[in-house]
User: Which sequence fits this backbone?
């Protein structure tokens, strides 16, 4: 799910952990907030399968009383968590619909602003997301936990945009607040700094921090995911063990499985991908990796997987959804043998965000299209930012 979680950044897991904790207290406090009466009924943005139990009861209550801020926050944050876990973009629509009475307000309640920024980030509306997070940072009246969450989310967006120095400033600011805010904030801030160290090639320093945090913290899953990705950038084979630890320790979401599948494919271990992704094909990002593996293995279901994937991409284009650029570029490159289209999509993706996966994709597509000079923007960025990634360094183009 590049794609729906951008998903995004290396900080999906960490941000979600803090998000749920910070908003839990807000939901209780919001019950006494003055109600906002909407001027019209909100349009439902997504339809999802009916759910059982407390979730259905909450959503029924919200339909009857759409101005209930405490219920809206809970419905929205649980939908965001499901989107992270399953890769279903419809859940993001559920979250936005829950927040509809406050969505367009220039100064919404802090919990709404935090979730609105999170959703905008998921949709790659990075400037709008930063505006929400910056506003929370400056709002002295906002709960401290929400402001900390906004600071960490801000760091994540800046990291996706390749603005590493500014991201480090947010991580350091968060660390300064951690004495008052508790252990989870300290761990998140130090992990944030360790991740930035790894991106800059300070491998030993990064690994020492990650190891210390792993020894001290109970959050084994998301720390293992961060270590796996740091190891992957360094060409360290221990990436496999950390991906497996992340999955077995509760970090079993679409993003983690897609990242691990990418690692296996890069190691020419396509035969292990189908078992990893079995039963997860409803997520577009995982169906893509499955189709790539099946094609390499000459699996009889490869053509069916490709057909289903193409249908989903076509539907996304009809919706005006540009969140699948990375996935569509990979499909063009590895499934359709169309490097020219892959290069165009990879260039568009690079203009929008600058994660290591985007850099690798643009370099691959440029070489496949016979236009290695088209990846010059990656090398300029690497020189300016200090990005270090073994896949780039082994690509044959000096950085």
Assistant:
């Amino acid at each position: 799910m590049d794609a729906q979680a951008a998903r995004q950044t290396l900080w999906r897991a960490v941000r979600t952990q803090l998000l749920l904790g910070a908003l839990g207290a807000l939901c209780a406090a919001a019950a006494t907030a003055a109600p906002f009466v909407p001027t019209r009924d909100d349009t439902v943005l997504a339809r999802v399968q009916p759910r059982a139990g407390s979730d259905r009861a909450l959503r029924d209550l919200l339909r009857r009383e759409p101005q209930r801020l405490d219920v809206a926050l809970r419905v929205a944050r649980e939908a965001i968590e499901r989107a992270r876990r399953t890769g279903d973009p419809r859940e993001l629509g559920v979250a936005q619909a829950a927040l509809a009475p406050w969505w367009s307000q220039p100064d919404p309640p802090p919990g709404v602003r935090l979730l609105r920024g999170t959703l905008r980030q998921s949709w790659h509306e990075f400037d709008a997301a930063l505006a929400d997070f910056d506003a929370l940072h400056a709002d002295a009246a906002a709960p401290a936990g929400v402001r900390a969450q906004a600071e960490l989310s801000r760091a994540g967006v800046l990291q996706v945009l390749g603005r590493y120095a500014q991201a480090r400033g947010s991580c350091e600011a968060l660390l300064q607040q951690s004495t008052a805010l508790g252990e989870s904030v300290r761990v998140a801030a130090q992990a944030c700094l360790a991740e930035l160290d790894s991106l800059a090639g300070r491998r030993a320093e990064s690994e020492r921090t990650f190891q210390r945090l792993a020894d001290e913290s109970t959050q084994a899953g998301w720390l293992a995911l961060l270590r796996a990705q740091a190891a992957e950038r360094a060409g360290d084979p221990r990436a496999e063990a950390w991906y497996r630890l992340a999955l077995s320790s509760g970090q079993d979401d679409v993003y983690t499985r897609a990242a691990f599948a990418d690692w296996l494919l890069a190691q020419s271990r396509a035969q292990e991908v189908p078992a990893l992704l079995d039963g997860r094909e409803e997520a577009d990002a995982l169906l893509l990796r499955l189709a790539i593996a099946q094609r390499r293995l000459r699996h009889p279901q490869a053509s069916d997987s490709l057909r289903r994937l193409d249908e989903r991409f076509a539907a996304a284009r009809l919706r005006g959804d540009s969140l699948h650029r990375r996935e569509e570029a990979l499909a063009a490159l590895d499934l359709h043998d169309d490097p020219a289209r892959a290069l165009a999509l990879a260039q568009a993706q690079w203009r929008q965000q600058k994660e290591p996966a985007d850099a690798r994709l643009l370099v691959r597509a440029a070489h496949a299209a016979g236009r290695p000079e088209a990846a010059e923007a990656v090398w300029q960025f690497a020189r300016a930012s200090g990005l270090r990634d073994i896949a780039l360094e082994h690509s044959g183009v000096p950085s």
Q: What stands out?
A: Residues 1-52 have pLDDT under 50 and may be disordered. DSSP finds 22 helices and no strands in the chain. The radius of gyration is 21 Å.
